[in-house]
Amino acid sequence: SKEEKSPELLRWQGRGTTRNLREIVLGRCYSYLAEGHVELGDRDCLKIWESLKAAFIHKNPCNSTTEDYQPLMELASHPVPCNKSLFWSRTYDLVHLYSKSNRQFLTLEDTFLGYMLDGLSWCGDPSAPGINYESCPKWSECEGSSVSVFWKMASKMFAEAACGVVHVMLNGSIEAGAFRSSSIFGSVEVFNLNPDKVSELRIWLMHDIGGPQSDSCSGHSIMKLRSILEKRNVKITCEDNYRPVQLLQCAHNPDHPDCSFCT
Ligand code: N1C
User: Fold this and answer.
1) Exposure class string for 202-240: b at 16+ Cβ within 10 A, else e
2) Is 119 left (phi over 0), alpha (psi -120 to 50) or beta?
3) Is 82 considered catalytic here?
4) What distance in Å separates the CA atoms of residue 205 and residue 202, rounded to the nearest whole number?
5) Catalytic residue at 238?
6) Mean pLDDT of the chain
7) Reported confidence tier of residue 7, pLDDT bands at 50, 70, 90
8) What is the C-alpha to C-alpha distance for residues 207 and 246, in angstroms, rounded to an integer?
9) Which of 152, 173, 184, 202 has most ligand 1 atoms within 8 Å of its beta carbon, as the pocket-test mutant?
10) Which residue has the least CA distance to atom 3 on ligand 1?
């Protein structure tokens, strides 16, 4: 009814729990396993859904903790082979387009855990039925919002597990700079790379086709990232407009002047 949708009941500013969350998570779980991820062995999708539900149902959506998500992380985690980890910040569409076209790389959303929850929203409510489908706290509304605690924890585990040469795709068309210390990449992943296992971080700094060239490998923000990682004993290299990715951008913008490579 209209009354149920009245603004007073929209307690939070973010979108509510995704409708049919259970079916979506179960479906993605079974799909991932059916797509031939044999290295995962047997996984119990129902148990995985139950552990996600238990992490937030009937709870205050601002008080999520890593303990809430620990059982889910254990059920869904799997090793990522060395040299395959691909991090990103502000390049969501492009990085996933690329990781889908080059199986040599895995983003968090290409792992079992990330695949199941990518793009979904969920949060609890202390009153019945225990799940809020109308609204959830935005990341900025509270520190411990269910979805942000989940992604920070998943990102931390993904970074800790990385080994060999790892990559990150950053956006050089962002005015605030390609590397932002407040992003999950800048605040969680960079500090959880293990220097004993990670030999090098390779940055791919991509510009939007036709977009501003606000930042580059020689810019301040990359210098900042360089100094953080050098202190942590991780070697770092940076390439502007890494060609295999740029060609993918150009496949979508073939007639743009930025894409006429033969002068
Ligand atoms: O804050 P960001 O990017 O730097 O986070 C990206 C970084 C990646 O390397 C991922 O491994 O952190 C991980 N990560 C996700 O995998 C992810 N999937 C979906 C972080 N956030 C993720 N999301 C959602 O996108 C989440 O809601 C978060 O707010 C954005 C990421 O924002 P960003 O600034 O582009």
Assistant:
1) bbbbbbbbeeeebbebebebbeebbebbeeeebebebeb
2) left
3) yes
4) 10
5) no
6) 95
7) low
8) 9
9) 184
10) 89
